[in-house]
N-succinylornithine carbamoyltransferase
Amino acid sequence: MRHFTRIQDVGPEGVETILAQAAAWKSQKPGAIFQSRILGMVFFNPSLRTRTSFEAVMLRSGGHAIVLDVGNGVWKLEDRPGAVMNADRAEHIKEAAPVLSRLVDMLGVRTFSAGGGDEEDELDPVINAFRRHVTVPLVSMESAREHPCQGLADVLTLRETFGTTKKLPVTLTWAPHIKPLPKAVPNSFLLSAAAAGCEVRVAHPPGFELHPQVRAEAEAYAKATGGSVTYTHDQDEALAGSRAVYAKSWGPATRAGHAPGDVAALMASYAGWMPTRKAMSRAAKDAIFLHCLPVRRNVEVSDEVLDHPSSRVIDEAENRFHVQRSLLHWLQST
Amino acid sequence: MRHFTRIQDVGPEGVETILAQAAAWKSQKPGAIFQSRILGMVFFNPSLRTRTSFEAVMLRSGGHAIVLDVGNGVWKLEDRPGAVMNADRAEHIKEAAPVLSRLVDMLGVRTFSAGGGDEEDELDPVINAFRRHVTVPLVSMESAREHPCQGLADVLTLRETFGTTKKLPVTLTWAPHIKPLPKAVPNSFLLSAAAAGCEVRVAHPPGFELHPQVRAEAEAYAKATGGSVTYTHDQDEALAGSRAVYAKSWGPATRAGHAPGDVAALMASYAGWMPTRKAMSRAAKDAIFLHCLPVRRNVEVSDEVLDHPSSRVIDEAENRFHVQRSLLHWLQST
Amino acid sequence: MRHFTRIQDVGPEGVETILAQAAAWKSQKPGAIFQSRILGMVFFNPSLRTRTSFEAVMLRSGGHAIVLDVGNGVWKLEDRPGAVMNADRAEHIKEAAPVLSRLVDMLGVRTFSAGGGDEEDELDPVINAFRRHVTVPLVSMESAREHPCQGLADVLTLRETFGTTKKLPVTLTWAPHIKPLPKAVPNSFLLSAAAAGCEVRVAHPPGFELHPQVRAEAEAYAKATGGSVTYTHDQDEALAGSRAVYAKSWGPATRAGHAPGDVAALMASYAGWMPTRKAMSRAAKDAIFLHCLPVRRNVEVSDEVLDHPSSRVIDEAENRFHVQRSLLHWLQST
């Protein structure tokens, strides 16, 4: 049985397979490939694109989705083995995962970082509790460590624009925000772009390093695919000549050990990192702009960048549908 | 591409077309007219009838609905152009509307008045933000200015009962409530009934005037269809000889400039406007009673009126299904 | 028109019919028995299994479900006849039930005890308000008095394990919890097991008696089916030789007249009632463990019992699907 909760589940070869199928089906729709299939979708956190695109994939392919919001019409779920459940979590994933597995054909789970720090996110406790206890294929709709469907959609958008991603110079740049955000999206763009052979440049202020294990994994993919990964604290340097600029905010590295008040001040001190057209002008003339959405306009990215013809954020969101259709098909194949 | 967010989108002729189709399909079901189509439904506010009737329309015609509750499992949405998004709204309609348009075939939006006053409601900022940014047909499931599907269902109910609505004397009467409600429903009954050629009588206490532009629009429809619109502060006078009594509460006209505390006192001072059987007895012998629902029993309308055989509120609610099936079909035709 | 909100609606004969069909369809799937049918599901309370299993039943049989969460995207509902609706409940079941009946083919309602005491639960005011006002078949998804679909699933699990339930010794044992829970589940196991001819032993601490009318009803079923029902305050005594152990917590009998603080202390004083493997060892060698779920691990039941091969709680949950498919088919037959 297959699961997909991280890029490592498929590796660079699997990324190729899934994206090739996604591209083929984008131009020529498949038939009812999920006829009578049910995807159960368990949300611990909000969603617009993920929820709608997964449900649309199922409905447009003869199947159905059942959407469950944890803590909102559905019991709160416990993930810790051995817990004495005397607080607000009424059900354990040890029961919820196998029970749902009896009722649906595939299960999707969204569970953001609980804010316990990079080490805990690396362990990804909630999605891994599901992984241990499901008896049907499991797909991540974003967890603490990764948002792998987003990464696949990002790379499909690059491919559509530039034909190939081999040695394509792309920049992942940190952007400001009102609060420290999880690192799943930057991790996934980094891993997916490296697995697709890009020349990935990561730009962020000091203290916002991504987790060493994620960086090591990206390095290994780059080595295997002829790509590369470099890091800098200089946004301008990274943007120079980039064919794609991917903006995303994330919180400081836990190990930096900031107090909460300091984090707000630290994030605020880098407000100048918000991408503008002036910053974009350092990139290649045909450079495109990407963001996973939702985006806080004029905080994380300026209106002028999002409303410029070089922005591909809507196409990128649509590509969630296409990669997920391909991915779910791969998941249910043995 | 067609949209339907106000009666003006179809005018009196369109009202006829949509109602004729609705009536025809009520007696003879159409086939799978929405085969494989998806209606995306975005709710900023609660709903029972609207949500269930739209979803039932899609399911009973071979299609599907995807339901999204803004701020409840879905990111809160910003509508203001140029906003610096540093508060609780994580996504802009500028992104949400085109993204959803890539995933569904039609989009419905419910967004009540934000309470900013009649002038702001006349501009209808949220539904109009969607209207600017969608790339698929948009249907209003009630916005600040109008609830046009309700208006259509109301007129269909009149037609079924009386055969024709030409010069039919009908009263829209203000009713009490525990708080000031939006004017979308009274606006829509007024506009729809005028567009259907009724002799519309509007009764409300002083200070509860509907917006001048809505009244002007209704006047224009009445002129075109041989109907009429009159206003009075005397409920008894309006009811005399009416064939239909439509009760609905709404808040005072903004221009009246009441302080919040005064509004509560003002509303309370008109508790005597609650329709009773005694009031209904002034209407025609065959008069029917209408209300859009939900209704607060014994506050807005008395039990004796709602439980009397002359009440048609359940048929009226069912007609939401019939007019919406016809309307969505019209929307997806070019 | 048929409804199913309590075991009494079908009696021991109906239980046999529904379970036989459930078992037959479990080994050989029926076709699209709910083709184009819509089940409306109204939830006043959270759910995981109930919501997913009912929706899966409809989707896997050619039909659909529309899910409504009361007070969460849907207006709060009033059930009291004659109420002056000036508080937070915006709509009366007198309207909601007939309106929904016009839009769907069957209606399911979940409404837990409001905490008003055993006498009020016996009257089951909310589900009975729906029952009075629907015009389509109504099914309980758990109400104040009973959770009859759970009871059917429990008995199906017993049958699958032991072949027959005639004179099968089974124990329903009270278990600890952090708060007093409703009695719908213990009532339903008691009633269903008695209707299936089991030798039912109920064990609970003093002061936790089930309602006299429920006990009388169970007694009548036992008499008719050759089963029996006995009560004890001694868990060990009940477990001795039992082939199934059903653990469930519930609150004290209202008539015991405890103050809220006393209830917490009372419940805490019986923490020793939590089933352990040691307790289970008093049962028959082939005894199975049952629980309706959700279960609070290490509060209500210990990990060692839930993780032991004798636990059938996941099969029991899956059986919700099977009995509900059979039941909805029975409901829509005339």
Q: What stands out?
A: The mean pLDDT of chain C is 96. The CA atoms of residues 111 and 143 of chain C lie 5 Å apart. Residues 313-332 of chain C form the longest helix (20 residues).
